[in-house]
Design brief:
Layout (H helix, E strand, L loop, with lengths): L2 H5 L1 H18 L6 H12 L15 H13 L3 H27 L2 H12 L2 H4 L7 H17 L7 H15 L9 H11 L3 H15 L1 H9 L1 H15 L8 H13 L6 H14 L8 H18 L13 H18 L3 H20 L2 H10 L17 H14 L5 E4 L3 H4 L4 E2 L7 H5 L5 H7 L4 H9 L5 E5 L8 H20 L3 E6 L2 E5 L5
Helix pairs in contact: 2-5, 3-4, 5-6, 5-8, 5-17, 6-17, 8-9, 9-11, 10-11, 12-13, 14-15, 15-17, 16-17, 24-25
């Protein structure tokens, strides 16, 4: 890395931090954030995922966010700030890697502009999702492996494996990218087999939390991480291929969760030139291969959502920027270089300009934003509204009192205790497909059990939204709307009355004392 590039590291970080902070403070809430927040709070209370509450991801995220919030405060803004820090670190790492590969700080700055202005980044990284944490670990693993040579220490292999393992411990399906990393190490290391073994040893250390929790309860662990996703949709774990074809078309043509022009520019520039670069410049080729594997992996879950492909963005930026830089350097005439540079600037301006409409949607209007679009009052998906509801709950409930909230975000920033079985919104999506025995085993309350609790006036306080749980498909939305109607009728039938109405939330209280 050149001296100028090193001097710009701190400014690059300081410019990204307020930018992503601004986005995190003003972006509409994503429905999934509530579950990640409340399970992180449960971990901070010394409860374990799978064993004490239902959690449908690998376990690292709640532990990481719980550790952060233990020192920085139990709040929405604190948790989102952690996502901002993770996203900024990813951007700095991307900048440094590009500068190292190209020996050009301008290329590094171009990469940061592409990264920060991408809809798949600014819409999905500075929020409480698996993307910022898993994305940082995954890209860090790539940076380490891309620099491996015949002289590399075995510890660098172990470090790469550890980082990749931590990404898998945050987002389970990233496990499928492991063979590509192992093959790349095998091709480039001096002691091939030993290097791969060091890598796999580090990987096992990275996934140790999952291994320990699996050993504690294999059946529950496998259900939460695999079985849940297999029964969530009527199309099974991997199916609904018509939908997957539509998602691929949306990536290139545009969709509410992505930007077709941006994706097309990065993908086709990389595809057109990355395999023509010299063998010694193998990192961009490796980055593009990772992006291709991630595209395939992201298509596997059912339903498939365009947001899943945000993992690909840093790798596409690496391949696109590096190949364009090499193309410019290969031009011999000064006039040709100037024309090519002007074309690159125009393409960069087009890329950034394409995100203007998306900034407005995710920060101001909510048009086409998943979860926000169907809301009657889109202010219900603002941080201010959620915090207002949480404050109202604290005014009504005694400290530590159990409250049934059908959207975990309303109870996260309160002193109340969630009703056991309702710590994670995603459980409701499959609750009608489970037997009572399965519900008890996997710690998911079934609709009949919830109504039985209402009949016994347990708990005293219930928070019910019109839109009670995140729903990715029309099938899910219809099911959740029907359940909301059933619960509302049950509450009225058993003596609960609405004491506060804030947006689409109704706070019900029954006659019994706390």
């Amino acid at each position: 890395m050149t001296r100028t590039a090193k001097l710009l590291l701190v400014p690059v970080a300081l410019l990204q931090l307020p930018f992503f902070t601004f986005l995190a403070r003003r972006r509409f809430i994503d429905g999934d954030e509530s579950s990640f927040l409340l399970v992180s709070r449960q971990v901070l209370m010394h409860r374990k995922p799978y064993l004490d509450f239902f959690y449908n991801q690998t376990p690292l995220l709640p532990y990481a966010y719980a550790l952060w919030m233990n020192f920085c405060g139990m709040s929405w803004n604190s948790a989102r700030m952690f996502s901002v820090v993770l996203t900024t670190l990813l951007g700095v790492l991307l900048y440094g890697h590009i500068c190292q590969q190209t020996r050009n700080w301008l290329a590094g700055l171009a990469a940061i502009i592409l990264f920060a202005s991408s809809t798949l980044v600014f819409a999905w990284f500075p929020v409480v999702k698996t993307f910022p944490l898993a994305g940082l670990f995954l890209f860090s693993a790539y940076v380490v492996v891309s620099q491996i040579s015949a002289e590399s220490s075995p510890w660098s292999m172990a470090a790469a494996g550890l980082l990749l393992g931590l990404s898998v411990d945050t987002r389970s399906y990233l496990l499928l990218v492991t063979p590509l990393f192992a093959w790349w190490i095998f091709q480039n290391a001096n002691t091939r087999r030993a290097s791969v073994l060091w890598f796999l040893g580090g990987f096992m250390a990275g996934v140790a939390p999952s291994i320990l929790l699996f050993a504690s309860s294999p059946d529950v662990f496998l259900f939460d991480n695999v079985g849940y996703h297999a029964i969530r949709s009527s199309q099974g774990l991997i199916g609904w291929w018509q939908e997957k074809i539509v998602v691929v078309l949306q990536l290139f043509l545009g969709a509410p969760e992505s930007n077709g022009l941006q994706w097309s520019i990065l993908f086709f520039v990389s595809l057109g030139f990355v395999f023509s670069i010299p063998r010694r410049r193998s990192a961009p080729r490796f980055a593009f291969q990772i992006a291709l594997v991630l595209i395939i992996i992201s298509l596997l879950p059912t339903p498939t959502l365009p947001q899943y492909f945000c993992f690909c963005l840093p790798f596409l930026v690496v391949s696109a920027v590096c190949v364009v830089h090499d193309l410019l350097m290969s031009l011999e005439s000064r006039r040709g270089r100037r024309l090519a540079a002007a074309a690159c600037v125009a393409l960069l301006a087009l890329y950034v300009g394409a995100s203007a409409h998306d900034f407005r949607r995710y920060l101001i209007t909510g048009d086409g934003v998943p979860g926000v679009q169907p809301a009657q009052d889109r202010s219900d998906w603002r941080l201010q509204r959620v915090i207002e509801v949480s404050q109202a709950i604290d005014q009504i409930a005694a400290p530590g009192e159990t409250v049934a909230s059908f959207w975990a975000g309303d109870i996260f920033q309160t002193k109340a205790t969630p009703l056991p079985g309702l710590e994670n919104d995603f459980g409701l999506l499959i609750s009608e497909k489970l037997t009572p025995r399965q519900g008890a085993k996997y710690r998911i309350l079934l609709p009949d059990e919830i109504q039985a609790n209402f009949a016994a006036h347990r708990p005293r306080i219930v928070v019910l939204r019109d839109q009670i749980s995140p729903a990715a498909t029309a099938e899910d939305r219809q099911r959740m709307q029907r359940l909301a109607g059933i619960f509302r009728s049950s509450l009225r039938a058993h003596g609960y009355t609405v004491v506060r109405r804030i947006g689409d939330r109704s706070i019900y209280v029954c006659c019994s004392n706390p």
